[in-house]
Automatic annotation (TrEMBL):
Identification of the protein by name: Anthranilate phosphoribosyltransferase
Binding site for anthranilate 2: R175
Family to which this protein belongs: In the C-terminal section; belongs to the anthranilate phosphoribosyltransferase family.
InterPro entries to which the protein is assigned, alphabetical: Anthranilate_Pribosyl_Tfrase, Glycosyl_Trfase_fam3, Glycosyl_Trfase_fam3_N_dom, Glycosyl_Trfase_fam3_N_dom_sf, Nuc_phospho_transferase
Species in which this protein is naturally found: Magnetospirillum gryphiswaldense (strain DSM 6361 / JCM 21280 / NBRC 15271 / MSR-1)
Domain Glycosyl transferase family 3 N-terminal: from-to ranges: 13-75
Associated pathway: Amino-acid biosynthesis; L-tryptophan biosynthesis; L-tryptophan from chorismate: step 2/5
Catalyzed reactions: N-(5-phospho-beta-D-ribosyl)anthranilate + diphosphate = 5-phospho-alpha-D-ribose 1-diphosphate + anthranilate
Comment on bound cofactor: Binds 2 magnesium ions per monomer.
Lineage of producing organism: Bacteria, Pseudomonadati, Pseudomonadota, Alphaproteobacteria, Rhodospirillales
HAMAP family: TrpD
Protein backbone atom coordinates (compact mmCIF):
# COMPACT_ATOMS: atom_id res chain seq x y z
CA UNK A 1 0.00 0.00 0.00
CA UNK A 2 1.33 3.43 -0.96
CA UNK A 3 1.91 6.06 1.68
CA UNK A 4 -0.79 8.75 1.86
CA UNK A 5 0.03 11.92 -0.05
CA UNK A 6 1.24 14.87 2.08
CA UNK A 7 -1.71 16.98 0.88
CA UNK A 8 -4.16 14.35 2.10
CA UNK A 9 -2.45 14.06 5.48
CA UNK A 10 -2.47 17.84 5.83
CA UNK A 11 -6.18 18.05 4.97
CA UNK A 12 -7.02 15.36 7.51
CA UNK A 13 -5.06 17.14 10.27
CA UNK A 14 -6.82 20.41 9.52
CA UNK A 15 -10.30 18.86 9.45
CA UNK A 16 -9.77 16.83 12.63
CA UNK A 17 -8.70 20.00 14.43
CA UNK A 18 -11.73 21.91 13.20
CA UNK A 19 -14.23 19.18 14.05
CA UNK A 20 -12.64 18.62 17.47
CA UNK A 21 -13.09 22.35 18.11
CA UNK A 22 -16.84 22.03 17.42
CA UNK A 23 -16.97 23.22 13.82
CA UNK A 24 -19.00 21.42 11.16
CA UNK A 25 -18.23 20.45 7.58
CA UNK A 26 -20.30 21.41 4.56
CA UNK A 27 -21.52 18.67 2.22
CA UNK A 28 -18.70 19.43 -0.21
CA UNK A 29 -16.08 19.39 2.54
CA UNK A 30 -17.38 16.07 3.85
CA UNK A 31 -17.19 14.63 0.32
CA UNK A 32 -13.58 15.77 0.03
CA UNK A 33 -12.61 14.28 3.39
CA UNK A 34 -14.37 10.95 2.89
CA UNK A 35 -12.90 10.68 -0.61
CA UNK A 36 -9.48 10.82 1.07
CA UNK A 37 -10.48 8.26 3.71
CA UNK A 38 -12.10 5.79 1.33
CA UNK A 39 -9.27 6.04 -1.18
CA UNK A 40 -6.77 4.86 1.44
CA UNK A 41 -5.08 8.26 1.74
CA UNK A 42 -5.58 8.77 5.49
CA UNK A 43 -3.76 7.01 8.31
CA UNK A 44 -5.63 4.71 10.72
CA UNK A 45 -4.97 7.20 13.53
CA UNK A 46 -6.48 10.03 11.47
CA UNK A 47 -9.52 7.96 10.56
CA UNK A 48 -10.10 7.00 14.19
CA UNK A 49 -9.56 10.57 15.35
CA UNK A 50 -12.05 12.02 12.88
CA UNK A 51 -14.68 9.36 13.55
CA UNK A 52 -14.54 10.00 17.28
CA UNK A 53 -14.49 13.79 16.88
CA UNK A 54 -17.65 13.53 14.75
CA UNK A 55 -19.27 11.13 17.20
CA UNK A 56 -18.60 13.32 20.25
CA UNK A 57 -19.68 16.55 18.54
CA UNK A 58 -22.58 14.90 16.70
CA UNK A 59 -22.75 14.21 12.97
CA UNK A 60 -24.74 16.68 10.86
CA UNK A 61 -27.07 16.08 7.92
CA UNK A 62 -24.53 17.75 5.61
CA UNK A 63 -21.67 15.56 6.83
CA UNK A 64 -23.66 12.34 6.57
CA UNK A 65 -24.86 13.29 3.08
CA UNK A 66 -21.37 14.10 1.81
CA UNK A 67 -19.94 10.88 3.23
CA UNK A 68 -22.83 8.82 1.81
CA UNK A 69 -22.28 10.32 -1.65
CA UNK A 70 -18.71 9.04 -1.63
CA UNK A 71 -19.79 5.58 -0.44
CA UNK A 72 -22.35 5.46 -3.24
CA UNK A 73 -19.84 6.66 -5.83
CA UNK A 74 -17.33 3.97 -4.86
CA UNK A 75 -19.85 1.14 -4.61
CA UNK A 76 -20.09 -1.70 -7.12
CA UNK A 77 -23.40 -0.67 -8.69
CA UNK A 78 -26.33 -2.93 -9.56
CA UNK A 79 -29.10 -2.01 -11.99
CA UNK A 80 -32.53 -2.25 -10.37
CA UNK A 81 -36.00 -2.26 -11.90
CA UNK A 82 -37.98 0.96 -11.83
CA UNK A 83 -39.78 1.35 -8.52
CA UNK A 84 -37.37 -0.80 -6.49
CA UNK A 85 -37.33 -0.36 -2.71
CA UNK A 86 -34.81 -1.19 0.03
CA UNK A 87 -35.76 -2.29 3.55
CA UNK A 88 -32.27 -2.04 5.08
CA UNK A 89 -31.89 -0.67 8.62
CA UNK A 90 -28.97 0.54 10.70
CA UNK A 91 -29.03 -2.39 13.13
CA UNK A 92 -27.49 -1.76 16.50
CA UNK A 93 -30.72 -1.78 18.50
CA UNK A 94 -29.51 -4.76 20.56
CA UNK A 95 -33.02 -6.20 20.70
CA UNK A 96 -32.38 -9.81 19.66
CA UNK A 97 -35.62 -10.01 17.68
CA UNK A 98 -36.50 -12.15 14.70
CA UNK A 99 -35.25 -10.90 11.31
CA UNK A 100 -38.09 -8.50 10.61
CA UNK A 101 -37.01 -6.38 7.63
CA UNK A 102 -35.64 -9.46 5.83
CA UNK A 103 -38.97 -11.26 6.19
CA UNK A 104 -40.78 -8.10 5.10
CA UNK A 105 -38.62 -8.02 1.96
CA UNK A 106 -40.07 -11.36 0.78
CA UNK A 107 -43.60 -10.20 1.54
CA UNK A 108 -43.09 -6.97 -0.42
CA UNK A 109 -41.55 -8.91 -3.33
CA UNK A 110 -44.53 -11.27 -3.30
CA UNK A 111 -46.82 -8.25 -3.52
CA UNK A 112 -45.14 -7.24 -6.78
CA UNK A 113 -42.63 -4.58 -5.69
CA UNK A 114 -38.94 -5.21 -6.50
CA UNK A 115 -36.72 -5.23 -3.38
CA UNK A 116 -33.01 -4.44 -3.66
CA UNK A 117 -32.21 -5.77 -0.17
CA UNK A 118 -28.95 -4.33 1.08
CA UNK A 119 -27.51 -6.11 4.12
CA UNK A 120 -24.66 -7.81 5.92
CA UNK A 121 -23.80 -10.50 8.42
CA UNK A 122 -24.52 -9.89 12.10
CA UNK A 123 -22.41 -7.15 13.66
CA UNK A 124 -24.36 -6.50 16.85
CA UNK A 125 -27.01 -9.25 16.79
CA UNK A 126 -27.18 -13.05 16.65
CA UNK A 127 -28.55 -13.08 13.12
CA UNK A 128 -28.00 -10.46 10.44
CA UNK A 129 -29.86 -10.50 7.14
CA UNK A 130 -27.04 -12.41 5.40
CA UNK A 131 -26.93 -14.98 8.21
CA UNK A 132 -30.64 -15.78 8.09
CA UNK A 133 -30.71 -15.83 4.28
CA UNK A 134 -27.81 -18.30 4.22
CA UNK A 135 -29.63 -20.46 6.78
CA UNK A 136 -32.65 -20.42 4.45
CA UNK A 137 -30.49 -21.88 1.68
CA UNK A 138 -29.78 -18.68 -0.28
CA UNK A 139 -26.26 -18.28 -1.59
CA UNK A 140 -25.49 -14.76 -0.37
CA UNK A 141 -22.26 -14.56 -2.37
CA UNK A 142 -23.82 -15.82 -5.60
CA UNK A 143 -22.45 -14.57 -8.90
CA UNK A 144 -23.66 -11.03 -9.49
CA UNK A 145 -25.48 -12.05 -12.66
CA UNK A 146 -27.63 -14.39 -10.55
CA UNK A 147 -28.25 -11.69 -7.93
CA UNK A 148 -29.37 -9.37 -10.73
CA UNK A 149 -31.53 -12.10 -12.28
CA UNK A 150 -33.29 -12.71 -8.97
CA UNK A 151 -33.90 -8.98 -8.55
CA UNK A 152 -35.35 -8.56 -12.05
CA UNK A 153 -37.15 -11.88 -12.52
CA UNK A 154 -38.13 -12.64 -8.92
CA UNK A 155 -38.57 -9.14 -7.43
CA UNK A 156 -35.84 -9.65 -4.80
CA UNK A 157 -32.06 -9.57 -4.83
CA UNK A 158 -29.66 -9.56 -1.88
CA UNK A 159 -26.87 -7.02 -2.11
CA UNK A 160 -24.20 -8.24 0.31
CA UNK A 161 -22.60 -5.05 1.62
CA UNK A 162 -18.90 -6.11 1.71
CA UNK A 163 -19.07 -7.21 -1.95
CA UNK A 164 -20.30 -3.79 -3.05
CA UNK A 165 -18.29 -1.55 -0.74
CA UNK A 166 -14.66 -2.57 -1.19
CA UNK A 167 -13.52 0.91 -0.15
CA UNK A 168 -14.77 0.14 3.37
CA UNK A 169 -11.61 -1.93 3.87
CA UNK A 170 -9.78 1.32 4.59
CA UNK A 171 -11.89 1.98 7.69
CA UNK A 172 -12.36 -1.58 8.94
CA UNK A 173 -9.38 -1.57 11.28
CA UNK A 174 -10.10 1.73 13.03
CA UNK A 175 -13.80 0.83 13.40
CA UNK A 176 -13.01 -2.50 15.06
CA UNK A 177 -10.41 -0.94 17.34
CA UNK A 178 -12.72 1.90 18.37
CA UNK A 179 -15.46 -0.60 19.18
CA UNK A 180 -18.18 2.04 19.30
CA UNK A 181 -20.82 3.52 17.04
CA UNK A 182 -19.46 5.84 14.34
CA UNK A 183 -20.86 7.66 11.32
CA UNK A 184 -20.41 4.43 9.33
CA UNK A 185 -23.25 2.81 11.28
CA UNK A 186 -25.49 5.45 9.74
CA UNK A 187 -23.93 5.32 6.28
CA UNK A 188 -24.54 1.64 5.48
CA UNK A 189 -28.29 1.86 4.80
CA UNK A 190 -27.76 5.10 2.84
CA UNK A 191 -25.44 3.47 0.32
CA UNK A 192 -27.70 1.02 -1.50
CA UNK A 193 -25.71 -0.17 -4.55
CA UNK A 194 -28.88 -0.19 -6.66
CA UNK A 195 -29.69 3.42 -5.70
CA UNK A 196 -33.28 2.40 -4.99
CA UNK A 197 -35.62 5.37 -5.30
CA UNK A 198 -37.83 4.15 -2.44
CA UNK A 199 -36.71 3.14 1.02
CA UNK A 200 -37.94 2.24 4.47
CA UNK A 201 -35.01 2.66 6.83
CA UNK A 202 -35.04 1.68 10.49
CA UNK A 203 -32.71 3.59 12.82
CA UNK A 204 -31.40 2.56 16.24
CA UNK A 205 -32.13 5.84 18.08
CA UNK A 206 -34.96 8.36 17.92
CA UNK A 207 -32.71 11.39 17.36
CA UNK A 208 -31.72 10.05 13.94
CA UNK A 209 -35.23 9.56 12.52
CA UNK A 210 -35.67 13.03 11.05
CA UNK A 211 -32.05 13.71 10.01
CA UNK A 212 -31.81 10.42 8.13
CA UNK A 213 -34.98 11.22 6.19
CA UNK A 214 -33.44 14.56 5.23
CA UNK A 215 -30.26 12.81 4.08
CA UNK A 216 -32.21 10.35 1.92
CA UNK A 217 -33.94 13.27 0.25
CA UNK A 218 -30.63 14.98 -0.45
CA UNK A 219 -29.31 11.76 -1.96
CA UNK A 220 -32.14 11.71 -4.50
CA UNK A 221 -34.51 9.17 -2.98
CA UNK A 222 -38.02 9.84 -4.26
CA UNK A 223 -39.95 8.73 -1.18
CA UNK A 224 -38.81 7.24 2.11
CA UNK A 225 -39.83 6.49 5.65
CA UNK A 226 -37.23 6.44 8.38
CA UNK A 227 -38.59 4.71 11.45
CA UNK A 228 -37.82 3.93 15.07
CA UNK A 229 -39.91 1.96 17.53
CA UNK A 230 -40.25 3.63 20.92
CA UNK A 231 -39.45 0.23 22.45
CA UNK A 232 -35.98 0.64 20.93
CA UNK A 233 -36.41 -1.35 17.71
CA UNK A 234 -34.95 -0.11 14.43
CA UNK A 235 -38.26 -1.16 12.86
CA UNK A 236 -41.90 -0.20 13.07
CA UNK A 237 -42.90 -1.99 16.26
CA UNK A 238 -46.09 -3.53 17.57
CA UNK A 239 -45.20 -3.20 21.27
CA UNK A 240 -45.26 0.63 21.40
CA UNK A 241 -45.78 3.66 19.16
CA UNK A 242 -43.23 4.23 16.40
CA UNK A 243 -41.67 7.47 15.18
CA UNK A 244 -41.74 8.06 11.42
CA UNK A 245 -40.19 10.77 9.27
CA UNK A 246 -41.38 10.69 5.68
CA UNK A 247 -39.46 12.25 2.80
CA UNK A 248 -41.97 13.11 0.08
CA UNK A 249 -42.38 15.96 -2.41
CA UNK A 250 -39.15 17.59 -1.31
CA UNK A 251 -39.79 17.85 2.41
CA UNK A 252 -39.83 15.88 5.65
CA UNK A 253 -43.05 15.22 7.56
CA UNK A 254 -42.80 13.53 10.98
CA UNK A 255 -45.49 11.66 12.90
CA UNK A 256 -46.20 8.74 15.24
CA UNK A 257 -48.03 5.56 14.31
CA UNK A 258 -49.40 2.63 16.31
CA UNK A 259 -50.27 -0.94 15.37
CA UNK A 260 -53.96 -0.05 15.59
CA UNK A 261 -53.46 2.39 12.68
CA UNK A 262 -52.87 -0.67 10.53
CA UNK A 263 -55.57 -2.79 12.16
CA UNK A 264 -53.03 -4.81 14.17
CA UNK A 265 -52.96 -5.75 17.84
CA UNK A 266 -50.35 -4.69 20.38
CA UNK A 267 -47.88 -7.38 21.47
CA UNK A 268 -45.36 -7.94 24.24
CA UNK A 269 -41.64 -7.71 23.49
CA UNK A 270 -41.16 -11.34 24.58
CA UNK A 271 -43.29 -12.43 21.59
CA UNK A 272 -40.69 -11.02 19.20
CA UNK A 273 -37.58 -12.60 20.72
CA UNK A 274 -35.55 -14.46 18.15
CA UNK A 275 -32.38 -16.52 18.33
CA UNK A 276 -29.50 -17.51 16.09
CA UNK A 277 -29.65 -17.71 12.31
CA UNK A 278 -31.06 -21.25 12.23
CA UNK A 279 -33.77 -20.39 14.78
CA UNK A 280 -34.76 -17.22 12.93
CA UNK A 281 -34.72 -18.95 9.56
CA UNK A 282 -37.15 -21.60 10.80
CA UNK A 283 -39.44 -18.87 12.17
CA UNK A 284 -39.25 -16.90 8.91
CA UNK A 285 -40.09 -19.96 6.82
CA UNK A 286 -43.03 -20.79 9.13
CA UNK A 287 -44.22 -17.20 8.83
CA UNK A 288 -44.19 -17.39 5.03
CA UNK A 289 -46.07 -20.67 5.28
CA UNK A 290 -48.88 -18.91 7.16
CA UNK A 291 -47.98 -19.22 10.86
CA UNK A 292 -49.96 -16.66 12.92
CA UNK A 293 -48.64 -14.59 15.81
CA UNK A 294 -46.71 -11.48 16.73
CA UNK A 295 -43.92 -12.16 14.22
CA UNK A 296 -46.45 -12.21 11.39
CA UNK A 297 -48.05 -9.00 12.69
CA UNK A 298 -44.81 -7.00 12.90
CA UNK A 299 -43.76 -8.21 9.45
CA UNK A 300 -47.16 -7.21 8.06
CA UNK A 301 -46.75 -3.77 9.68
CA UNK A 302 -43.33 -3.17 8.13
CA UNK A 303 -44.17 -4.72 4.76
CA UNK A 304 -47.41 -2.71 4.65
CA UNK A 305 -45.47 0.50 5.27
CA UNK A 306 -42.99 -0.43 2.52
CA UNK A 307 -45.89 -0.93 0.10
CA UNK A 308 -47.17 2.53 1.03
CA UNK A 309 -43.74 4.07 0.41
CA UNK A 310 -43.45 2.27 -2.94
CA UNK A 311 -46.85 3.61 -4.00
CA UNK A 312 -48.44 0.15 -4.15
CA UNK A 313 -50.79 0.78 -1.21
CA UNK A 314 -52.94 3.81 -0.43
CA UNK A 315 -52.46 3.67 3.35
CA UNK A 316 -51.21 1.39 6.12
CA UNK A 317 -54.39 -0.69 6.35
CA UNK A 318 -54.35 -1.23 2.61
CA UNK A 319 -50.65 -2.09 2.81
CA UNK A 320 -51.21 -4.67 5.54
CA UNK A 321 -54.05 -6.22 3.53
CA UNK A 322 -51.78 -6.56 0.48
CA UNK A 323 -48.97 -7.91 2.66
CA UNK A 324 -51.26 -10.53 4.20
CA UNK A 325 -52.40 -11.58 0.72
CA UNK A 326 -48.76 -11.96 -0.35
CA UNK A 327 -48.25 -14.46 2.47
CA UNK A 328 -51.61 -16.21 2.33
CA UNK A 329 -51.63 -16.83 -1.42
CA UNK A 330 -48.08 -18.21 -1.30
CA UNK A 331 -46.41 -15.44 -3.32
CA UNK A 332 -43.95 -14.45 -0.58
CA UNK A 333 -42.90 -18.09 -0.02
CA UNK A 334 -42.55 -18.55 -3.77
CA UNK A 335 -40.19 -15.56 -3.91
CA UNK A 336 -38.02 -17.22 -1.25
CA UNK A 337 -38.02 -20.58 -3.02
CA UNK A 338 -37.13 -19.02 -6.39
CA UNK A 339 -34.34 -16.98 -4.78
CA UNK A 340 -32.85 -20.19 -3.33
CA UNK A 341 -33.01 -21.87 -6.74
CA UNK A 342 -31.59 -18.93 -8.70
CA UNK A 343 -28.69 -18.14 -6.37
CA UNK A 344 -27.57 -21.78 -6.15
CA UNK A 345 -27.58 -22.33 -9.89
CA UNK A 346 -24.27 -23.05 -11.62
CA UNK A 347 -23.24 -20.61 -14.33
Amino acid sequence: MNSPAPASLSLMKEVIGRVAAGHTMSEDQAEEVFEVIMSGDATPAQIGGLLMALRVRGETVEEITGAARIMRAKALAVAAPEGAIDTCGTGGDGSGTYNISTAAAFVVAGAGVPVAKHGNRALSSKSGSADVLAALGIKVDADMTLVTESLWQNNIGFLMAPRHHNAMRHVAGPRVELGTRTIFNLLGPLANPAKAKFQILGVFASQWVEPMAEVLGRLGVERAWTVHGLDGLDELTITAPSLVSEWKNGKVHSFEIRPSDAGLRMAHASELKGGDAAFNAAALRALLEGAPGAYRDIVLFNAGAALVVAGKAADLKDGVTLAAKSIDDGAAKAALDRMVAITNREI
